[in-house]
Amino acid sequence: MTSQFAHFNLKRFLAPRFWPTWLGLGVMWLAAQLPYTTQLWLGRQIGKLAFHLLKHKRHVAQVNVALCFPTLTEDERTQLVKETFHSVGIGIIEAGFSWWGSDRRLRTLAHIEGAEHVTKAFEQGNGILLLGAHYTSLLMCGRLMAFEVPFNAVAKRAHNPLFDAVLNYYRRKHFDGLINHTNMRGMLKALKQNKACWYAPDQDLGYESTVFAPFMGMQAATLTATARIARATNTAIIPIDFERLPNQQGYHVRFRPAIEGFPTGDDVADATTINAAIEEQVKRAPNQYLWIHRRFKSQPDHKSPYE
CA torsion 259→237→280→296, rounded to 10°? Predict the structure, then answer.
């Protein structure tokens, strides 16, 4: 494992406060060496444990599922929340596999569809905004997507500085580049150079630079940045779907056709279009979406449903 960090400044993270994180990373590295079916099993066990231990995250997921799936029975909602935690647990193990798994092992799991839409968009010469979302298979599918399409990852910092450093180390290793989510200038520069940027605008970042638009039947604070970027660069907006397939078949990465007639100049209409594109995949595999995020914490009446 040490050789994997030949260009990584380990000395910054030798203090005792980082030892639990190192232990976790060590477990992730060991898990990445296991057969794929065993990794999935281990991830589910982690998810089952997290469901019982992480009461706050469980409450958030329960509220989200109740808001977005009002027609489900209470038992069905509980089952969906449990399956969400199982998916989150698997996502943790997948993260290590995406970092330390060989290209040979990972390529066998990749099922990529719609790459011709990306090729067509590159031919137009205005760059591509790959519109993603926070699916639990995000890290694994990002690695698999890079086999087909070179791209810059647009991301925000993780709270744990050691985990953030490791995460960004492998993003830089496997992707074309890394752009902080607040670095609008960096995104615009990459797009104007006809590069692709992978961007997931489906988290609630508060009231600033957002409008309220429908998402899964709720009003959600939605960033206006997607439309502003498209307006400034005339870039293509291509939705991408990530899905963990059943029966250990691997992962489906789907590039959809570029969104037509976007942006319109109406911030709410444009935000609604973006949310609808994400919602399509969420409904296809609802247990694989990151329901533990407080997606609806910002509301028009300033009353959070999680309180």
Answer: -120
